[in-house]
Amino acid sequence: MKKIFVLFILVFSVQIQSQTNLKVNAFTTLLTIPNVGIETSIGKKSTFQFDILASPWKSIKGNPRQFYTFIPEYRYHFHEKYNGFYVGAHLGATLFNFQKWNYLNTGKYEKGFGYVMGATIGYQTKINDKFGLDCFLGGGNQQGFYKGYYISTGERYDKAKDYNKSGEWLPYRGGVMISYRLN
User: Fold this and answer.
1) 75-101 burial, b if ≥16 CB within 10 A, otherwise e?
2) How far apart are CA 95 and CA 126, in angstroms?
3) How many CB atoms lie within 10 A of CB 39?
4) Mind listing the pLDDT tens digit for each residue in 151-165?
5) Under 8 Å between Cβ of 137 and 113
6) Measuring CA to CA, which residue among 132, 107, 119 is closest to residue 39?
């Protein structure tokens, strides 16, 4: 995970001539599920953001709660970049070792991967020259490919030959990101 984060910082450091913001989601971080990102200018009213949401908890009360979400997103700002309303479109990836909400207290969990595609709406405001806030809510379609296991034995409970598949339309991102301008 550390290697991915370092690579992520290096790739976007080439944008040093344009305004770049590092971000952390205040709400999810308080819940011990860090959400960090980087947003950089790519046009007059356009930015590109890449963020990672991670729950590194292998187990909470004996139930798996580990997941990672990687979301690159194009954003269009209606007024000036980093200040005011914007909309975004994204296509991201997920990895999970998690007990789904409808499997709570069943002794079963799911392990797999998936993708998300959707949109975000948000509002950014500047606090001062270096700091800002980004309030956002996003969602869309989530498609998962997973294998089901018993928590107690680790054996598969499902009958699928390869992967089970499921998909939902739901909100899956949101919060308040505190941003710090690098340049």
Assistant:
1) bebeeebbeeebebebebebebbbbee
2) 33
3) 27
4) 999 899 998 889 999
5) no
6) 132
